[in-house]
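Minutes, project huddle
Topic: does the predicted pose make sense with ME8 bound?
PN asked that the exact inputs be recorded in the minutes so nobody has to dig through chat later. Recorded below.
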Amino acid sequence: MSGRFYISTPIYYVNERPHIGHVYTTTVADTVARTRRIEGLDVFSLTGTDEHAAKVVEAAAERGLETREWADRNAAAFEDAFAAFGIDNDDFIRTSEPRHIHFVEEVIAALEATGDVYLGQYEGWYDASQEEYVPEGRAKEHDFCSPVTGRPLVRRTENNYFFKLSGYADAMLAHLEAHPEFVQPAARRNEVEARIREGLDDVPISRTGGGDWGVKFPGNPEHLIYVWIDALLNYSSAVATEERRHYWPADVHLIAKDILWFHAVIWPAMLMALQKTEDFAWLALPGMVYSHSFWISEGQKMSKSLGNFVDLEQLERYRDRFGLDALRFFLVTQGPLGTNDSDFAESRFIEVYNNDLANTVGNAVSRVSNMTGRYLDGRFATVVETGDLRDQVEALEIDEGPLGLGRVAKGLELVRRVDGFVETTQPFRLAKETGREEEVAVILYQCAETLRIASLHLWPALPLQMEELWRRMGLPYAEEIAAGRGAFAAWSAWGGLPAGAGLDKGPALFPRYQDEG
Ligand code: ME8
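Predicted holo structure (tokens), as shared on screen:
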């Protein structure tokens, strides 16, 4: 293996069942992980659940359940959902697990020893709906209501342990300057930078009087460690073992804009503080925090009060109707990866499915396999080294982007080139003329070879159907990737479809969808 790659998703609150937002981020992370797995990197992809929030306790109580029982049930729902949507994560961490709790205790004790965590008194505007304090300026700006949910803020005074965030403003600005890729997209980086320049206050990291669902402050068990501090540490606790430590630092923390501040400022400042300790100096800063935007639903913001969350049941219906790959493809290519929100609308789904998958990928594969069957007995006698389509394939350059997902767009474009090439060269017409067998073979080899190269680009988003295509070509890529021997660079070079290889016919990979209504 030529290197390692670590990507994480947020860990999700277990007060509720999963919905499209959770499946989205985790599917994108899975797709990114696969772009690295197919390159042969030693990949670690992590997801999991954030369990110590007060709203988990409340949600359980509303149902007359023990907190643990409700947390267990929902954690299982997340784990099952991710399996059902084809996520190939390497671990699923729950913050209620002993391995995590012990790690948090040790980290906090170490930070207390350096003086970065200290006991003090805090008075401020508390946003109960988000379980966070809102700085004075922001509170005023939002008329003393939550900037996220709009609910009234409450004035609260408590004895807390604090984290000395104020000591890290200069270091954070210097880090952003030296590593402009640290927060992406760039617009999010600029927001973060502007807010740091407004000044950083120390942050309370413990609470009292909230029962005992949480991690107890080491040496002062009346205090529970604030859920966010506990949660962020999951990224490190999951790899704190001898066998996994080499995965650190994470290459990408994939999150959405709602939790940018914690990931882009508080988390790296904590890691900077940990650099001063002996036991945790291995926790260098992650490579990138990538913050996407939000899905909305049929033109409206999704909210509990509107009851319009695209929930698991709805996502399952899409999966069952169009296939898992189609759902993944839609999420990854049409989702809110940039700074704009995206609308999840059925009409758009059908349009994308028919245009990109049925009429492009599916159609090209069936056309080329049909002609190969009919004119070449399903086999390619020789490797074709030169030709117009090869030139086009080699000239095509697409920016892969910070997450490597531009590769999927490139795969789709390669398939479009196959279509265009068939249109211009008309092998089905040549095949009817005598003495032109050689030309037909040269055309069809190039088509199949381009589809093979495209499939390597598309696999991260369309794993099931691209593996089906590989079976039809008799190529062992799926097994090689599973064994950690992905070789994207070598495989995607021209000529990988060997002489004697075939392209078997089979059912349509993406049958055209026609509304029955
Ligand atoms: O914030 N569109 O957990 P959470 C896209 N436990 N993505 C969405 C979304 C939407 N409409 N809604 C949610 C938490 N998400 C904390 C995180 S991490 C150390 C602790 C996704 O269950 C998106 O990834 O509220 C967002 O950041 C995350 O779910 C929030 O999940």
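Observations noted during the meeting:
- Residues 10-13, 21-22, 24-25, 50, 231-232, 234, 255-256, 258-259, 294-295, 302 surround ME8 (CB under 6 Å).
- The longest helix spans residues 346-376.
No decisions taken; revisit at the next huddle.
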